[in-house]
Design brief:
The chain has 2 domains: about 180 residues, Medium-chain alcohol dehydrogenases, catalytic domain (Quinone Oxidoreductase, Chain A, domain 1), CATH 3.90.180.10; about 140 residues, 3-Layer(aba) Sandwich (Rossmann fold). The protein is an alpha/beta fold. The strands form 4 sheets. Strands 3, 4, 5, 8, 9, 16 and 17 form a 7-stranded mixed β-sheet that branches.
């Protein structure tokens, strides 16, 4: 039996590099060698056991995390027609059954049999030498898009989904809360989608500087200046047309209703994992404010790859450190110890170091 190395989580704060069987390739499946794997806040929350889906049993140990990745096709199944050995690829982060009604009519995200790559109802993720994927969930990586860029497909897709959910139109003013990868990418993509002015809030000057380098017009450090006053200085007393809440701060979500124009839209893309008390719902009603939840959908993957291929979107300035793929446990420690100067940790597969 052929084996490979994989970093698997056996319980809270218990990640081990172990030998596991290389996945068997089914007729319509593709075995891919992992070249890059991103470390996400969700991966860290699973590792610590703090993630709500660990607590409610939707994520069971042991499991292999890693849902942000890019790689090379190693082996294809007998019925695979769209890929060949050596192709550069990226993937969806959900694996639907492909046979139920929702899958057949194009709403596979509703599939009751679906599994998430490296997270909920875990389809083993990319923290190993190889990852197995059905061909229907794979995408070719354009020739001029690097493996580094490809590993950002998932956070870029979530960010683009949040911009679409906010209904950003040409000429809109947009405020993004949060300077994690999704927040900064959402701000960048709002600009690409035609916003006239994009501002972002955060608490770490290092991360705000990266956001500005990626094209954000204005930054607001909420530890140094009153948010409402700073917002008014940027767009006037009427407020912003759109807000994207990517920080996970309930307080920032509450304040958002004081920062928008009448008829504005607020897109919520963060995880909160708690209930909200003392919410003044009249601000939503009388402000005619639309609030939309936003999560990752595969429909945004091709547009993201197109933007990368055209040179309009380059997420790589978000990479703040790198580690070998087999040092995933150390990467988790980095997530904890370097929060002030960490945006994205990228791990590199053996033989494909930068």
């Amino acid at each position: 039996m052929r084996t490979m190395k994989a970093s698997r989580i056996f319980g809270p704060s218990d990640m081990r590099l172990v030998d596991v069987p290389v996945p068997e390739v089914g007729p319509r499946e593709v075995l891919c060698k992992v070249v890059r794997a991103g470390v996400c806040g969700t991966d860290y929350a699973i590792y610590t056991g703090a993630f709500s889906f660990v607590k409610n049993g939707a994520i069971k140990f042991p499991m292999t995390p890693g849902h942000e990745w890019s790689g090379i096709v190693e082996k294809i199944g007998s019925e695979v027609t769209n890929f060949k050995v050596g192709d550069r690829v990226v993937s969806d982060t959900g694996v639907a059954c492909g046979e139920c009604y929702d899958c057949l009519v194009g709403t596979g995200y509703r599939c009751k049999h679906g599994r998430a790559v490296g997270t909920i109802k875990c389809w083993d993720g990319a923290y190993g030498e190889y990852i197995l994927m059905p061909q229907r969930h794979l995408f070719h990586l354009p020739d001029n898009v690097s493996f580094d860029q490809g590993a950002f497909l998932e956070p870029s897709g979530i960010a683009l989904g949040s911009v679409r959910s906010a209904d950003v139109q040409a000429g809109d003013t947009v405020l993004v809360h949060g300077t994690g990868p999704i927040g900064i990418l959402a701000a960048t993509l709002a600009r690409i989608c035609g916003a006239s002015k994009v501002a972002i809030t955060g608490r770490k000057g290092f991360k705000l500087d990266i956001a500005r380098k990626m094209g954000v017009d204005a930054t607001i450090n909420t530890t140094k200046e009153p948010l409402r006053e700073a917002a008014r200085n940027l767009v006037g007393p009427d407020g912003f047309d759109r807000i994207i809440e990517a920080s996970g701060s309930i307080e920032l979500f509450r304040q958002s209703f004081d920062l928008v124009k009448a008829g504005a839209t607020i897109s919520v893309v963060a995880f909160y994992e708690k209930l909200m008390d003392q919410f003044d719902i009249d601000k939503l009603v009388f402000g005619i404010v639309t609030v939309r939840g936003s999560a990752g959908l595969s429909s945004v993957n091709r547009p993201v790859l197109n933007l990368m291929a055209e040179g309009r979107l380059d997420p790589t300035p978000l990479i703040t450190s790198r580690r070998p793929l087999f040092e995933a446990a150390k990467a988790m420690t980095d997530m904890r110890d370097h929060n002030d100067t960490r945006v994205k940790i990228l791990m590199e597969g053996p033989g494909y170091e930068s």
